[in-house]
């Protein structure tokens, strides 16, 4: 269960990534039905100002010992050139050894790599740091395209907003879609972006003849349980199918049918999390129609079958 979150700060502190962790885990949203987390901010030398940009400083109030029993230990962006202290690396290794989540945001992956936690794992980081991370740590499988990755209990994200996606991914995994959605709604962000979505998408400037796809995406989401063809999407968008495909690639980063399948799988996860519907009913409500097709796409994108997903995450969570 996700109850205690510890953030380890190292100079220079990236205020945005630190703020992401604080916003998701450090704000009391119990009035909205979100469990209140125990949130601690740690450093090797607490109460000493840590540089966080020109003229800016932050202070951690807890020692690294406060991370010893955390369910999630997170490292926001950190230096690419300064190796973390042995004390910091020891705290990260201890968290990994006892099965806690260990998460990096943006260049925080360098700290996890220095601690030896990323060897033979698939890892996300900001695209501009990916080549250096791969060069400095050749045993790490660096994916420069994806927003975030989970490999075992190691979660890594690309820069800035991708950190929000990674945090909500952990909340969704441990506490269910309903809790993640409540946090996302208060933050006014998308409740779910697939980790495999590309970091960098060329977004055309909307002109008189080419508007945003958002109304079409909203229509797809609202009708996810029904049969939806590319031709139907194109009619809603008011464009030819070829034009729709081109605009999907530019604005969303994938083909229309690929995005539709991702949304169906996301909907299936919500239903598995929040209802006791059978797998057959989940398949129908998410638009796959039949359980075999749901199992095929769910296993391909999530890595396990719907039944195993519910047993491993939902049933375990409900039993706690």
TrEMBL record:
Superkingdom of origin: Bacteria
Q: Which GO terms describe its molecular function?
A: DNA-binding transcription factor activity; sequence-specific DNA binding
- The HTH araC/xylS-type domain is annotated at 214-312
What keywords sit in the KW lines? DNA-binding, Transcription, Transcription regulation
Task: Check the record and name the SUPFAM superfamilies matching this protein.
Answer: Class I glutamine amidotransferase-like, Homeodomain-like
Q: Is DNA-binding among this UniProt entry's keywords? A: yes
Asked if DNA-binding is a keyword of the record, the answer is yes
Q: Which SMART domains match?
A: HTH_ARAC
Q: Name one Pfam family in it.
A: HTH_18
Concerning InterPro entries, the annotation shows: Class_I_gatase-like (IPR029062), DJ-1/PfpI (IPR002818), Homeodomain-like_sf (IPR009057), HTH_AraC (IPR018060), HTH_AraC-typ_CS (IPR018062), INH-QAR (IPR052158)
**PANTHER family per the UniProt record, alphabetical:** ARAC-FAMILY TRANSCRIPTIONAL REGULATOR (PTHR43130), HTH-TYPE TRANSCRIPTIONAL REGULATOR RV1931C (PTHR43130:SF3)
What this protein is called in its record is Helix-turn-helix domain-containing protein
According to its UniProt entry, this protein's organism is: Cryobacterium mannosilyticum
